[in-house]
What we know:
This protein is mainly alpha-helical. It has 5 domains: 31-147, Actin-binding Protein, T-fimbrin, domain 1, CATH 1.10.418.10; 152-264, Actin-binding Protein, T-fimbrin, domain 1 (Orthogonal Bundle); 294-344 and 357-396, Methane Monooxygenase Hydroxylase, Chain G, domain 1; 401-506, Methane Monooxygenase Hydroxylase, Chain G, domain 1, CATH 1.20.58; 514-633, no CATH class. Helices cover 55% and strands 5% of the residues. The chain has 18 helices and 8 strands. The strands form 2 sheets. A 4-stranded antiparallel sheet has the order 4-1-6-7, with no helix packed on it. Strands 3-2-5-8 form a 4-stranded antiparallel sheet, with no helix packed on it. β2 (524-528) and β3 form a beta hairpin. The longest helix is centred in the middle third of the chain and has 62 residues, at 368-429. It is elongated, with a radius of gyration of 55 Å. The relative contact order is 0.05.
Amino acid sequence: MRVKMSRQLPPIPTRNGMKRPRSRGAQSPTLADVVVDRIADERDAVQKKVFKKWINSHITKVGEEIHDITTDLQDGRALVKLLELLGGETLVREKSGLRLHRMQNVQTCLNFLRSRKVKFVNIRSDEIVDGNVTLTLGLVWTIILHFQVSTVKEIFKQEQLTPKEALIIWCKELADGYPGVRIENFTNSWKDGLAFNAVIHRHRPDLIDYTYVRNLSPEARMEYLFKVAERDLGVITLLDPEDMMGAEIDEKAVLTYVSSLYRALPSVPPQTRLQGEQERQQAYFEYCNKAKKLITWIRNMISHVNSREFPTSLFAMKDIVAQHKFLKVEIMPNKDHERRSLKYLIRDLHAMYDPKVKFLDVADGLHPRVADELWVELLLAVEERTKALNIEYTRLQHLQRVAEKTEKEAGALERALEKIDEEANLIESKAEELGQGEVRRRHIQLDKALMVFEPTVKSLLANVEILLSGKYDEAEEIQIRVKNIASRWQVLKLRITTIIEKEQKVELKKSRLSGHQILVTRDTTISHDKFDSQVEVEPGVFVDAADLEGYNVQYTTTKTVVKVRSNVTEEEMEEIKRTEQETVRTEVTEVPIESENMIEEEAAVDGLKLENGNENKSKVHFLDHAFEISYVTF
């Protein structure tokens, strides 16, 4: 029954990629026509991908590549190069892009194939140049069939067999006895992926863990198989898992891939050598013990090398680095030899089993495949640990240099502070002998020396923070030492600074007393405030106040007249008044001025001002705090 289609349906493409022409009176396509054309298009798409990969697997060896099998073959140059590689002959190739030269290149290929007795029908050079999809795919398939698939016939020596029949016989013999595998064709028999794995496993049981594969999904089996075949056998992955999952599987695509496996595998599988059950079991347990021991070691070593718990000592870190080097240079090569030997053991073990009689199921997790996958993981982990060790070792070297520098500078600073402390004690013990001026000069020198070491103290404290943050193993001990040094420096600095400040006050006092004179009378006694001695001075003599610092001037009478004269100006005396807080407490009498530059004055008991008795006297305040009513202390 015909089903009428909607007029909105898109035009149906034909196999050669051109839109199918429709006359005005043409009948609408049936649903069956649409489905057939769609399946054909899907098949063409798979063939385009598979044939393109197959061509590239050859021509990439000489630096060429195609991206679209239809357009990139139109000029014939890639076809010429492909046939040169497959046939081992040099062909003439035109490089110009003219249509005439393109057709000449394609015709060269067709002539070469005819010379090799390759049969093809209705394939003309102009069709290839014009990009006819169907004929282009047909030409490539003819090349594959002749140069790859047809070689399978050679092992059977039967002329009546076609390459396809010979290949399917080869596959059947290999897969016979494998659970779940039944090869009848090159379409649905390969759909679940078990047939592909069985073919490789029969030749290389060390590459395929068939027990493991049986528990995978069809898509996962395909991915596993394609990965192993390309990595270990050099077979290009022509198919994708989804190519095998459709309703219609392309026979030519499967034939192309299986023939690639045939070329990569030995033509004859390993011969079985049937043994007694006891010998098979002994060999099996021997293999399992070795595999288990090796795989356990690899797992444990992966865990070890993934650890990043490194020592904080550079000395201990050197041992860790040496151990890691020994692992890479000595231990791992031996373990790699054990890993490789497992493959030979599994081959020998499978040779004791005939799949038709008894299929060998390797214990879960003990196939060489597991050891190979873990070994790759171990190699990556070892490489990462090598990088981590180098980084950590460099970091600890830096911390070690910081620690050594800190210890060296700390030792030098300790010695310097010890000398400064000794010098300060010496100055204090010999103050009277050295004199006030020399004492002060030496104290200033010590203070400058301490200031020079201030950056060093700060640098030591900063280094300690670096060592602590870097978790250096001796950081806390160094911290204690540096803190003690910093504390001692601060104590010394405070001590010297305090002494200098006191000396500065004395100097200020002396500067204020400079130019002042005190009149010594008969009832005046001058004695030192620290030594039990008196100074004899003639009565009526003016003594410089600055010379009496540290002495007591005592008057024996009840009402004492302390006469002071000064050559300071009135403005300077006003400045003294503003800065001084204490008052002079003596009784006032009048003393005449001896000269214009010399002012004599007597401070009243209230310490405020002089009585202005006549016009020759200046009204000034004398506020020298060293004078008191019964004695004077400078």
